[in-house]
TrEMBL record:
CDD domains: CuRO_1_CueO_FtsP, CuRO_2_CueO_FtsP, CuRO_3_CueO_FtsP
GO molecular function: copper ion binding; oxidoreductase activity
Residue stretches making up the Plastocyanin-like domain: 17-128, 349-458
PROSITE patterns attached to this UniProt entry: MULTICOPPER_OXIDASE2, TAT
Catalytic activity reported: 4 Cu(+) + O2 + 4 H(+) = 4 Cu(2+) + 2 H2O
Gene Ontology terms describing biological process: cell division
Enzyme nomenclature, EC number: 1.16.3.4
Protein name: Multicopper oxidase CueO
Species annotation: Marinovum algicola
Subunit structure: Monomer.
Keywords, sorted A to Z: Cell cycle, Cell division, Metal-binding, Oxidoreductase, Signal
Length: 459
């Protein structure tokens, strides 16, 4: 689906069913599809007029994750609209070319709604920049929405056990673009894969089954200034990366991931906390390999082959020196630690997670940021690693737990994997009022829904 502002475009959120396993139907949600939504093609410099219809039975939103939009267009929890209603935002597209996404963002329901399928990808193109990369959609440039799901007797199931409430929900079956055991045929040469981790909680460490090198060419917010060679790419929930791989050897290969449980901090501190029961401890760290996608190479030569250019037509913004610093700690327990852990284990309801000791409150604005001023945000996490996401702007990661910034965390980001003290520089150029503030939250959707979220105004 092309959304370029010249014509009206409708995303119709509705309930449906899909046979993920042959002959077994699963209840799903989708935007104009049974499951997930169409890829939106947005063009920089135009206005995208989108009508989002709610034909489901519950309130939904459409959040344009990664776009730089004022709060009233951002689709956060305050902009929920009910069954039978239609939201018609006009989105000014003035963001660099990037791989973004959209999903529902109703507080307390985001995990369930995204799991059922209310999400899709956005490809934002900038016709003014000639990018020397594969860019023919569906031919040498592929969107890959990666999600883990749990199937019981073939039925897609969202069933939160106690540990899932703590660590976030993980399933053992992988869907790519809504398909189990996906296969992709690519031309012989350079191919661009746009990876979106749209899983509720799972972190991936992507690579190829033969260990071949590939290049990352873009992160969340757009192209990197130079391709980065790597053999493994870490992607936590909500993050995107574009990679280019060379298939000119015509060998079939699999895109795989290390099977990383729960985003636990490296040392397995949660495993230690939980004692020898093995509920967590046993799955801490990589325990095997997940197949993500089988790739076969056709006889057809690719449009682009040979070496990638050393530089890409992108520069990172100079955000200047920060005017102030803000500190955030992501709390698995917003109250006393052991008491809240009991709450987590006993009750499914109520919010026990938070940031800086408080759980999300839709009616509380946590702070105000002056428009156009650069800030340093220092983010820390207790108990486990968390993907930290900010609405309304992209940021630059300047420090990661005292280590060098991971290669895949360079470039413009809107989600960063926080595993130890993480520092970002951010500047907000779009306003947001108390009626429709910007969110900052953990992108493990079960954590977000349980209150690991806050909101702020900009102006
Ligand atoms: Cu992808 Cu606040 O969300
Ligand atoms: Cu977002
Ligand atoms: Cu979290």
């Amino acid at each position: 689906m092309e959304v370029d502002g010249r014509a009206g475009n409708t995303l119709s959120a509705r309930a449906g069913t899909r046979n993920f396993y042959p002959g077994v139907s699963s209840p799903t949600l989708g935007f104009s599809q049974d499951y997930l939504g169409p890829t939106l093609r947005l063009v920089k410099g135009r206005t995208a007029k989108i009508a989002v219809e709610n034909r489901t039975e519950a309130p939904i939103t459409a959040h344009w994750h990664g776009m730089h939009l004022p709060g009233h267009l951002d689709g956060g929890p305050q902009l929920a609209f009910g069954p039978g209603e239609t939201w018609t935002p006009e989105l000014p597209v003035n963001h660099p070319a990037a791989t973004l996404w959209y999903h529902s963002h109703v507080h307390g329901e985001t995990a369930t709604q995204v799991y059922r399928g209310l999400a899709g990808m956005i490809l934002l193109d900038d016709p003014e920049i000639d990018v020397p990369l594969p860019r023919t959609y569906g031919e040498d440039d592929f969107p890959l929405i990666v999600q883990d799901r749990l199937f019981r007797r073939g039925v897609m199931t969202y069933d939160l056990g106690h540990m899932d409430q703590m660590a976030g929900f993980q399933g053992s079956d992988i869907l790519v673009n809504g398909t189990l055991q996906p296969k992709l045929t690519v031309p012989a040469g350079l191919v661009r894969l746009r990876l979106l981790n749209a899983s509720n909680a799972r972190t991936y460490e992507f690579g190829f089954s033969d260990g071949r090198e590939f290049h990352q060419v873009a992160s969340d917010g757009g192209l990197l200034p130079a391709p980065q060679a790597m053999t493994g790419l870490h992607l936590s929930s909500g993050e995107r990366a574009e990679i280019v791989a060379d298939f000119s050897d015509r060998r079939a290969v699999r895109l795989v991931s290390a099977d990383i449980a729960g985003g636990m901090m490296g040392g397995g501190s949660m495993g230690g906390m939980m004692g020898g029961g093995g509920m967590m401890g046993a799955d801490t760290g990589a325990t095997g390999t997940l197949d993500i996608l089988s790739i076969e190479v056709s006889e057809q030569p690719a449009r682009v082959s040979g070496a990638l250019p050393a530089r890409l037509p992108a520069t990172l913004p100079d955000l200047g020196a920060p005017v102030r610093t803000r500190d955030f700690t992501l709390n698995v327990h917003s109250g006393g630690m052991m008491g809240s852990m009991l709450n987590n284990l006993v009750g499914r309801d109520g919010q026990t997670m938070g940031i800086n000791g408080s759980s999300y409150d839709m009616s509380r604005v946590d702070f105000h940021v002056p428009l156009g001023e650069t800030e340093r945000w220092r983010i820390n996490a207790d108990m486990m690693a968390h993907p930290f996401h900010v609405h309304g702007a992209s940021f630059l990661v300047t420090g990661m737990g005292g280590r060098a910034v991971d290669p895949q965390a360079t470039g413009l980001k809107d989600v960063v994997h926080v595993d130890g003290l993480t520092e970002i520089l951010v500047r907000f150029d779009k306003p947001a009022t108390a009626e429709a503030p910007f969110m900052y939250h953990c992108h493990i959707l079960e954590h977000e829904d349980r209150g690991m979220m806050g909101q702020f105004t900009v102006g």
